[in-house]
């Protein structure tokens, strides 16, 4: 039974001749009400009778959609709207909810359709999991019958997805067909294509004309989701999903034959290769043992009796698809359902290099921000604006504010993919948002592409959609112990590791981070700089609360920021130093940041110097809100037991040992699947792995020292992190002053063996910037990084005057990881080059002594080092360790230990940091990295990684961008 809510204050009670009796739902297009017609008018001539087919009698109830369209008052626009709705009325009532009436003349435009008493397929999948057997087959037949009827009437649905399929007692029904085109006819969404990213056809994404073939593609994607519980092209960021739709094959999961072959054909990239809906329906009926009559048209049209057959088969509980004696692979070449696509097809062969599908695609990572005017003046040399670990956001290009003032912004990803073949995207912003059907627009080749997010919250650290698990249950996990010696887990003490992981579960801030490093709004509805980028306006979503009922408002954010600024042990001093008033708060002279002012429902933020990517920092927990109960930064009662507004709340804890997180029922973005998660702090990988193997634990983080033991480990989750382990050549003096010597070292190293020594968790590095950063996943132009070349290494060493027997210092800090890396590097250099490596060790606890040794007047040779940006951006990675004005000396704290100076490198970074276009900015960063690699200013070794073992009885459990478990999506099978 469909859930019917009572009318709310402000809801209309009548629309034309219809009396509204309840609220069925609300989405991006409008609110849907249950209603009855008080004036019993017969349908006009030529209009469909709701009693057909089969003489079904409606019970008098109808569904009335009150549209949110903004009419211009132009009579022609209203006329076009009425014409489009009239076309939708011609759709036969075979497995559809027929459009019965509409009114565009009044101030409240609405569309009336038959009321279907049944839940949406999306809700059934979320609550009960994937469909199997006859249930799945009936859904396939019924929905394709509906699409065939829709196409027969000359209508293209353009937004077919699980949410638009209702499961009635007599079979599935498709709703909302023609509505998108009708809205477009008003001019309110001119030149748009409407759809949900996971179900959009390639031609919808690329801005090409959209026809019935797009609905066939959406049907295929819907069948995959219905059968597997996972979208065919993933469910992380919108640009990543779109990239896969354009360039990669679908993941059909466990979808079985014979439906699997049909779905694969429907998901062809080329619309010309997809079968028509009529042909797919005919094939489904054949497989169900009810073939269409001989001679029936099977390409562009279907006779009425075939639609009747489809509706009858979909309504029969025993209907099943059976394998055909002639499998699709054996079908005659003339059949588009059975043949291998021709060689020129994107699916038939590896496309030629000049083809958009044949070349290495552009990085699928979205570009998260667009820099506004107010960058450093021409000629200025960039430097860390607030300290040696200065952080700027990921290179990007989407516009801020990502949402219009007053829009919800909930769960919306505000990003833009890199420009690339077949695609030209210049920005992305929220057009409207209502309930879970937020609408996002991208500029595509001069037109606007409007897309709906996946039903519910999709991707990132707040996703609960798409898991095939069930609601309820508990889980125990093990993670490393925190570094806060007093056990604080409040946002102001957040810095890294477990001390950052726990606040992420307990608090929700302005923006959130997706697994690929890109950002999306959470409680921010807009983040807008002025022309100078010194003053920022942040709109904040209203109506949310902390778990104790206190409101999460602008005051709560200002309170949290001031608290973090006054806490020396968190990331606040790194990330907030350029906010006006930081010095006074951190020095105890003030309790509030003078540069953070509450204005209405939002914040006004003033920086001491322009920074056009300030918004990227807001993902860090130190920018989270706190309730009044938080008190001062030294309030240990709160610091150890914080009250938050995140997906979980702290149920109980044992200081230094464990934390139990319980579902926060008042979370603004839904509810977690698990009731509770107990987080055990442990440094013993063996204990955690044993607990997972026995079924006691659902997750165990593996210590890096144990990565070498992971070979053959089942249920292993791993991912590269945003850190690069490297060798710093001390180039001021000594053997590494010669570029040939640095290249000789790089060519002598076998990075694959170093990676293997860590179980492959540390991937071999092919650049300075970590591959986890958006835009840097592909191999960079570093020939000496790609594979060892002993012959060339010896030649270069000879040219540098460093023959066999040469002594070269190698500095290291004493840790298990560096000990292992040092042994391998030492062996490779001594074996290949014949050098004598003088290993010089410093205890890990004495970093200052290590740095002092590297900047001493007699320092020379090579040194191990690791570096990562504060956020996923190239600027803080490259500038901090290679900038010409931040060379490390005994009397400063800079991190350019190599002493590298290159006017070309500095010029490129100066250009990049003030380049507005995100794709261009990324390109300039890549040029800067290439300049440093050509000079071998740093010698990359491996990228850091994170690994964990998981219990297969849980689903939705993986590593997020920080390498933490995704607790918000985890569920029991």
Automatic annotation (TrEMBL):
Ranges of compositional bias, category Pro residues: 330-366, 374-396
Region Disordered, annotated ranges: 314-425, 455-496
Segments of skewed composition (Gly residues): 457-472
Domain of life: Bacteria
Amino acid composition bias (Polar residues), ranges on this chain: 475-486
Skewed-composition ranges (Low complexity): 314-329, 397-411
Chain ranges of the Protein kinase domain: 18-287
Protein name: ABC transporter substrate-binding protein
UniProt organism field: Actinomadura fibrosa
